[in-house]
């Protein structure tokens, strides 16, 4: 199928004959202004305020997690989650090479070294088969039952799968393997708010999960992140260290740990609450768009990425897979040249200068996808209601 046909279909679908069509923009039609103005009128714009608590309550309801802790962005949420899982200097963390750079950065911020293991072609997320094979071939247990990399002698302190573009990875299988090997599972669910596997929300299959509310995500609060967990001790500690580890007292300053100033301001939380009120509406709207794309690509050599089996995806970014690298590049050139914004999937983390020396497996599927995957415009299409 020639690029021009796809571009015309995108323009038709967004009812925009000319001008720029972005990849993904925020959608505000509810209480956003009202709640943000409320924080200004009340002077509670900073890290103390009712909207932060309300946002956390809403995230508990949506994900079903026992604890939800709001932070300033998804990167800091992941950074803290990794520390709480036990990542420190001299440990390793298994993740996928096909992810946004923040995943690998947060691992290093926590003191860990990323180890890149391949993804599955159908989910675009960490492959349980590749994970099992890596662990079988490269790790052993020490006297305390900890999983140790046989070559580097470092402890594997966590495994961080990522639900790419909102498509759930094979998370139940990954959780089972992590359990078997005694490796804490931390899900980078930054892109998968509203995505489920067997009715269970992504981010809640392991010890910890993290979300992002950056401007380009499914819903946004300018910048924001959330940590979720069902573990009581970790839940309390997450809140404590994200708020400078200050011990509650009416007037005294006493801090009992090296804390972080990662608490989300009330100003952002207000926007988050208004956005989450619209979440179901947004998800439905995005599913309708995905269904249109799916129909369009049905008989094409270009494959539309659909929800993996037994999952419900949020279709944050609609995704197509070209038959080869040349057709991917042609389409990127044509579409962006005609003001229809499209983007290739990320360059593999293992090819970036700061991560090129990290341990990795063959990454066969990751390399295959890197050459073929493109995201196409996926914003909510406003409707009169
Ligand atoms: C967006 C994103 C993050 C980081 O979120 P920020 O809020 O931008 O810090 C982390 N991981 C993945 C996979 C993301 O897409």
UniProtKB/TrEMBL annotation:
UniProt-annotated catalytic positions: 217
Coiled-coil boundaries: none
InterPro entries to which the protein is assigned, alphabetical: DegT/StrS_aminotransferase, LegC-like, PyrdxlP-dep_Trfase, PyrdxlP-dep_Trfase_major, PyrdxlP-dep_Trfase_small
Listed Pfam families: DegT_DnrJ_EryC1
Positions of modified residues (N6-(pyridoxal phosphate)lysine): 217
GO molecular function ontology, one term from the record: pyridoxal phosphate binding
Listed GO biological process terms: polysaccharide biosynthetic process
Top-level taxonomic group: Bacteria
Keywords on record: Aminotransferase, Pyridoxal phosphate, Transferase
Family stated for the protein in its record: Belongs to the DegT/DnrJ/EryC1 family.
UniProt-listed PANTHER family: BLR5990 PROTEIN, TRANSAMINASE
Protein name per Swiss-Prot or TrEMBL: Aminotransferase, LLPSF_NHT_00031 family
Organism phylogeny: Bacteria, Pseudomonadati, Bacteroidota, Chitinophagia, Chitinophagales
């Amino acid at each position: 199928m020639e690029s021009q046909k796809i571009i015309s279909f995108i323009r038709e679908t967004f009812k925009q004959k000319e001008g720029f069509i972005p990849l993904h923009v925020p959608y505000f039609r509810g209480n956003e202004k009202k709640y943000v103005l409320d924080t200004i009128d009340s002077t509670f714009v900073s890290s103390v305020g009712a909207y932060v608590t309300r946002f956390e309550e809403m995230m508990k309801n949506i994900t079903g997690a026992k604890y939800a802790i709001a932070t300033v962005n998804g990167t800091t949420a992941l950074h803290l989650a990794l520390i709480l899982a036990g990542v420190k200097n001299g440990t390793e963390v298994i993740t996928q090479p096909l992810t946004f750079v923040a995943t690998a950065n947060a691992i290093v911020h926590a003191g860990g070294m990323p180890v890149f293991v391949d993804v599955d072609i159908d989910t675009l997320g960490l492959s349980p088969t590749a994970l099992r094979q890596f662990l079988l071939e490269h790790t052993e247990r020490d006297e305390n039952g900890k999983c140790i990399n046989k070559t580097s002698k470092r402890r594997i302190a966590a495994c961080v799968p990522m639900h790419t573009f909102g498509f759930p990875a094979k998370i139940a299988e990954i959780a089972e393997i992590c359990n078997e090997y005694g490796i804490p599972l931390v899900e980078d669910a930054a892109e998968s708010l509203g995505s489920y596997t067997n009715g269970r929300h992504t981010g809640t299959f392991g010890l910890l999960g993290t979300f992002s509310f950056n401007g380009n995500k499914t819903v946004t609060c300018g910048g924001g992140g959330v940590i979720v967990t069902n573990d009581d001790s970790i839940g309390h500690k997450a809140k404590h260290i994200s708020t400078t580890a200050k011990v509650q007292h009416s007037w005294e300053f006493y801090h009992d740990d090296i804390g972080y100033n990662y608490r989300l301001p009330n100003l952002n939380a207000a926007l988050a609450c208004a956005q989450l009120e619209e979440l179901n509406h947004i998800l439905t709207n995005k599913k309708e768009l995905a269904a249109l794309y799916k129909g369009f690509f049905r008989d094409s050599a270009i494959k539309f990425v659909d929800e993996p089996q037994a999952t419900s995806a949020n279709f944050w970014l609609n995704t197509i897979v070209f038959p080869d690298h040349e057709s991917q590049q042609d389409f990127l050139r044509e579409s962006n040249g005609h003001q229809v914004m499209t983007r290739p999937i990320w360059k593999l983390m293992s090819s970036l200068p700061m991560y090129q020396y990290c341990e990795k497996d063959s990454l066969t599927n990751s390399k295959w996808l890197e050459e073929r995957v493109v995201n196409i415009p996926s914003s909510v299409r406003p409707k009169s209601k």
